[in-house]
C-alpha cells in the first residue's frame, strides 16, 4: 500500500484532487470574465429596474422621475452622475458569487456527464442528457451562490438611490451581508432564490449545453480540432442562446431581490416570482421581460468568450483534460 501512496503524492494537484481543482480553475476563469464585463452587468440591472410598475403601489415617485434610457445613455449617465469607477459598483460580491456559482456548476455538470449519465462509446453525448445536466448544474451552482447574488444586485442599485436622495443601505459588502442577516435572518440571504435558480437553469441550458454540444459537434464532424478557434465559436453560440433563454427570468430575479422588505423579510411589492411576472406583463407589457436584453447579450457573449477561453487554457496549463 505504501508504493501507491508514494506515487499519489508525486501526482500533480489537479490529478490528486480533480474536482477541487476544477472548482478553483473555473472560479479563476470566472473572475477574469467578471472583471472584464461587469459594467455591462451593472447597466443591465439598472435598465431592468427602470419603469417598475409595482413601485406605484408604494407611492414611490422614482418611476416617474427617472426617464427610461437606453443602454448607452444609461452607462454614460452612470459615469457622468456617479463617476467612472461606479461602473464596477458591486463587483466584489459578483466575484464572490461567480467563484461559488461557476465552481459549483462546472463540477456538477462534469460529474453528471462523466459519472451519472456517461458518454457513448463513440464519445457522443446526447443532447437531452446535456440539457438535463446543464439545468441541474445551474440549479446547484445558483442555490449555493444566492446570498452573494442578492448582495450584488442590491449594491448595484446603491448609486441610483443616492441620486434619488435616498439614504444608502450599505457601507460595503460585509456590512450588506451583516445587515441582511440581522434584519431578516438566514432566510433573507436566499430571498429570490426561486426565480434565481429558474434563471440559472435556463442560462446554463443555454451556456453549458450549447458550448458542450457545439464544441463536440465541431470536433467530431468538421476539420476543426479542440483548439482556440473551436472554443471561440462554441462560446459565441452559447452566449447568444443563454441570453435569449435567461433574460426574462433575470428581470424577475433582479426585481424580487431589489424590492423593499418588511421586518420579517417579506417582499412588499411581489408575493412570488409568478406575481412579479404577472405585474410586469400587465403593467409594462410583455417586452418588459426583455428589458436589458442588449447589454445582457453584449455582456454574456464576451463573458462566455473570456470564460471559456480562459478556462480551457488554464485547464491545459494545469494538466487537466479539456472540458
From TrEMBL:
This is Mitochondrial uncoupling protein 4. Pfam families: Mito_carr. Facilitates proton transport across the inner mitochondrial membrane and may dissipate excessive proton gradient associated with oxidative and metabolic stress at neuronal synapses. Regulates glutamate-induced proton conductance in astrocytes, shifting the energy metabolism toward aerobic glycolysis and lactate transfer to neurons for ATP synthesis. Can transport chloride ions with lower efficiency. The transport mechanism remains to be elucidated. It is a multi-pass membrane protein. It catalyses: H(+)(in) = H(+)(out); chloride(in) = chloride(out). Keywords: Membrane, Mitochondrion, Mitochondrion inner membrane, Repeat, Transmembrane, Transmembrane helix, Transport. Belongs to the mitochondrial carrier (TC 2.A.29) family. InterPro entries: MCP_dom_sf (IPR023395), MCP_transmembrane (IPR018108), Mito_Metabolite_Transporter (IPR050391). It comes from the Eukaryota. Solcar repeats lie at residues 21-115, 125-217, 226-317. Its main location: mitochondrion. GO terms for cellular component: mitochondrial inner membrane. It comes from Suricata suricatta. Gene3D superfamilies: Mitochondrial carrier domain. Homotetramer. It is found in: Mitochondrion inner membrane. PROSITE patterns: SOLCAR.
Amino acid at each position: 500500500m505504501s508504493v501507491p501512496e508514494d506515487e499519489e503524492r508525486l501526482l500533480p494537484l489537479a490529478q490528486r484532487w480533480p474536482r477541487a481543482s476544477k472548482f478553483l480553475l473555473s472560479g479563476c476563469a470566472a473572475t477574469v470574465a467578471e472583471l472584464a464585463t461587469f459594467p455591462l452587468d451593472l447597466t443591465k440591472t439598472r435598465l431592468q429596474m427602470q419603469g417598475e410598475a409595482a413601485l406605484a403601489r408604494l407611492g414611490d415617485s422614482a418611476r416617474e422621475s427617472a426617464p427610461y434610457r437606453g443602454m448607452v445613455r444609461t452607462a454614460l449617465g452612470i459615469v457622468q452622475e456617479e463617476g467612472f469607477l461606479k461602473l464596477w459598483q458591486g463587483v466584489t460580491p459578483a466575484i464572490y458569487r461567480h467563484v461559488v456559482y461557476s465552481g459549483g456548476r462546472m463540477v456538477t455538470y462534469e460529474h453528471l456527464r462523466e459519472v451519472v449519465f456517461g458518454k457513448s462509446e463513440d464519445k457522443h453525448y446526447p443532447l437531452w442528457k446535456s440539457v438535463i445536466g446543464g439545468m441541474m448544474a445551474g440549479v446547484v451552482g445558483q442555490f449555493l451562490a444566492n446570498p452573494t447574488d442578492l448582495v450584488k444586485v442590491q449594491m448595484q442599485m446603491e448609486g441610483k438611490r443616492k441620486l434619488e436622495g435616498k439614504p444608502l443601505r450599505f457601507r460595503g459588502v460585509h456590512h450588506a451581508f451583516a445587515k441582511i442577516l440581522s434584519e431578516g435572518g438566514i432566510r433573507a440571504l436566499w430571498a429570490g432564490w426561486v426565480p434565481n435558480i429558474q434563471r440559472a437553469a435556463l442560462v446554463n441550458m443555454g451556456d453549458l449545453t450549447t458550448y458542450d454540444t457545439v464544441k463536440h459537434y465541431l470536433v467530431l464532424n468538421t476539420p476543426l480540432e479542440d483548439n482556440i478557434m473551436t472554443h471561440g465559436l462554441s462560446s459565441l453560440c452559447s452566449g447568444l442562446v443563454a441570453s435569449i433563454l435567461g433574460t426574462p427570468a433575470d428581470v424577475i430575479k433582479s426585481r424580487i431581490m431589489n424590492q423593499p422588505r418588511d421586518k420579517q423579510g417579506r417582499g412588499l411589492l411581489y408575493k412570488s416570482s409568478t406575481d412579479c411576472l404577472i405585474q410586469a406583463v400587465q403593467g409594462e407589457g410583455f417586452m418588459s421581460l426583455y428589458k436589458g436584453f442588449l447589454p445582457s447579450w453584449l455582456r454574456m457573449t464576451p463573458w462566455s468568450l473570456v470564460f471559456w477561453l480562459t478556462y480551457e487554457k488554464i485547464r491545459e496549463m494545469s494538466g487537466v483534460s479539456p472540458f
